[in-house]
């Protein structure tokens, strides 16, 4: 049975890598995609590759090993990068919603507001902000004494680690809850505010075709936001007494494997421009092979 799960996870991991690498290559090699929206999308694809790589290789190794072992330092490293990259993604999704707000609500000033320097600083802010916001809880967890060496999870998440501690972890649980709530709910609020203005502006467009075109530019992002926030809110923005390990395992799979798998397909299948460029690239590849 473990071999079956190994093959499924390996196939999924390879699809994640392939899908996101394709998105990155399309954006980097096509001048028409060198715009703020696709710059942020390329960062999201790069982020999804890193995020899955933090968890998937260790899971694949554990599925084949009799003893599922990870060092304490390796566990803390995995825990840190899991939360660090997850936090970057939430902030980046909020930034992407702001980009859509400027594009739809202030189209004449879009290129002035969202210039290359501003986009770079926004992405840099995502990474730097996430780095510092996650650092404190991980340092606190690293100093805990642990009574047992086994955790009931397929990767080093915060909740099973705290369960293995020898001391009262109420303060750390509260700190984790507050930090998770701050990151997830504040970025979600920025996204909701942006889309409130976006929808209000779209509804004022007189033509049906114009409204459909405006909505289509936001559809992919809304889908990704719904998936990303849906699982994470139920995992981390809740009191500890509502903790359910079984639910967390399912939600963790959705967050670490399913979401990075869906993102490139959502953006390629729902975006006419990306689909068109992808078809051109495939046609050129097949034509080259046919000629040679």
TrEMBL record:
Record carries keyword Transmembrane: yes
Q: How is this protein annotated for GO cellular component?
A: plasma membrane
Q: Which CDD domains match?
A: 7tmA_OR6C-like (cd15912)
Q: Which InterPro entries match?
A: GPCR_Rhodpsn, GPCR_Rhodpsn_7TM, Olfact_rcpt, Olfact_rcpt_6C-like
Q: Does the keyword Transmembrane apply?
A: yes
Enumerate the subcellular locations listed in this protein's record, separating them with semicolons: Cell membrane
Q: Which residues form the signal peptide?
A: none
Keyword annotations for this protein, in alphabetical order, are: Cell membrane, G-protein coupled receptor, Glycoprotein, Membrane, Olfaction, Receptor, Sensory transduction, Transducer, Transmembrane, Transmembrane helix
Where does it mainly reside?
Answer: membrane
Per the UniProt record, one Pfam family is 7tm_4
Name the SUPFAM superfamilies for this protein: Family A G protein-coupled receptor-like
Q: Which domain of life is it from?
A: Eukaryota
| Membrane topology reported for the UniProt record | Multi-pass membrane protein
Ranges of residues in domain G-protein coupled receptors family 1 profile? 19-267
GO terms (molecular function) for this protein are: G protein-coupled receptor activity; olfactory receptor activity
Where is the chain membrane-spanning? 6-28, 40-59, 79-98, 118-140, 177-198, 218-238, 250-269
Which family is this sequence assigned to? Belongs to the G-protein coupled receptor 1 family.
Protein name per Swiss-Prot or TrEMBL:
Olfactory receptor
Query: What organism does the record attribute this protein to?
Result: Eublepharis macularius (Leopard gecko)
């Amino acid at each position: 049975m473990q071999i079956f799960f190994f093959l499924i996870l390996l196939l999924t991991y390879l699809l994640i890598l392939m899908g996101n690498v394709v998105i990155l290559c399309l954006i980097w090699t096509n001048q028409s995609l060198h715009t703020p929206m696709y710059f942020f999308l390329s960062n999201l694809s790069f982020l999804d590759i890193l995020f899955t790589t933090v968890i998937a290789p260790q899971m694949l190794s554990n599925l084949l090993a009799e003893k599922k072992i990870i060092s304490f330092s390796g566990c803390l490293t995995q825990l840190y990068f899991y939360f660090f990259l997850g936090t970057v993604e939430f902030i980046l999704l909020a930034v992407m919603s702001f980009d859509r707000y400027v594009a739809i609500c202030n189209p004449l000033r879009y290129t002035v507001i969202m210039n290359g320097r501003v986009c770079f600083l926004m992405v840099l802010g995502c990474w730097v902000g996430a780095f510092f916001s996650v650092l404190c809880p991980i340092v606190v967890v690293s100093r805990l004494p642990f009574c047992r060496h086994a955790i009931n999870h397929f990767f080093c998440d915060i909740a099973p680690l705290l369960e293995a501690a020898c001391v009262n972890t109420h303060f750390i649980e509260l700190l984790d809850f507050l930090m998770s709530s701050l990151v997830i709910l504040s970025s979600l609020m920025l996204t909701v505010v942006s889309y409130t203005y976006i929808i209000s502006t779209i509804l004022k467009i007189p033509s049906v075709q114009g409204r459909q075109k405006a909505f289509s530019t936001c559809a992919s992002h809304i889908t990704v936001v719904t998936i990303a926030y849906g699982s994470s809110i139920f995992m981390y923005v809740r009191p500890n007494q509502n903790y359910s390990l079984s639910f967390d395992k399912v939600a963790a799979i959705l967050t670490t494997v399913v979401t990075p798998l869906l993102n490139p397909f959502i953006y390629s299948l729902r975006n006419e421009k990306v689909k068109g460029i992808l078809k051109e690239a495939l046609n050129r590849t097949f034509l080259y092979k046919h000629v040679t």
